[in-house]
Fold:
Amino acid sequence: MLHYKKIAVVVGIFALTFVGMAATRPPEEGPKNLKVLPKDISHEELGKIMDSWKTALGVKCSFCHAPSADSSSHHLDFASDAKPEKNMARYMYKMTGKINKKFFKMNKDDNGKIASTITCVTCHRGNPHPDEVK
Ligand code: HEC
Ligand code: HEC
Structure:
């Protein structure tokens, strides 16, 4: 009798361990909240675009990305849409695409990639507010 109880306890501990492991598995990799960029974009390509936006506007990532809700963490919550600047950037991205499509012929570069004539930096030139005269 006692023997079976022991086995039950051991099996129970194993089961709990596996449930625990599944629950603490890190969240899935990859972007979770893309609305304008391709959902299957590579990590590398997304990073390049983010760097180019940062440089074009002369800002830090935190200009568009809200801090993590967990205040003990110094990380940004990249998937969050809490900052209006992020949605403005989406709007600007769509606008830039429309300008290129409508007014400039989209040429393909040597790698067969579509090269945009107008990019964020065309207007922003390292300034988040190109409408304001410096
Ligand atoms: C000018 C605003 C802006 C700046 C600056 C910016 N981002 Fe973003 N970022 C966005 C927008 C907008 C999206 C969502 C794109 C979409 O909806 O397709 C995004 C999405 C992301 C995502 C994907 C999040 C998810 O899970 O959906 C990551 C990661 C990210 N940015 C990292 C960065 C990093 C790192 C930097 C700094 C090097 C940076 N961003 C700078 C606007 C910005
Ligand atoms: C045709 C010119 C033009 C292009 C191209 C352009 N922008 Fe803008 N952007 C502006 C102007 C002008 C403003 C100010 C608008 C306003 O305040 O109403 C602005 C404002 C913004 C803001 C808001 C800044 C704030 O403090 O609220 C963000 C974010 C932004 N742009 C991101 C981008 C990104 C990212 C790109 C490229 C994908 C881009 N813009 C391309 C002209 C442009």
Observations:
- The CA atoms of residues 64 and 84 lie 7 Å apart.
- The mean pLDDT is 85.
- The radius of gyration is 24 Å.
- The pocket of heme C (ligand 1) is lined by residues 31-37, 46, 50-51, 53-54, 57, 59, 61, 63-65, 78-79, 85-86, 89-90 (CB under 6 Å).
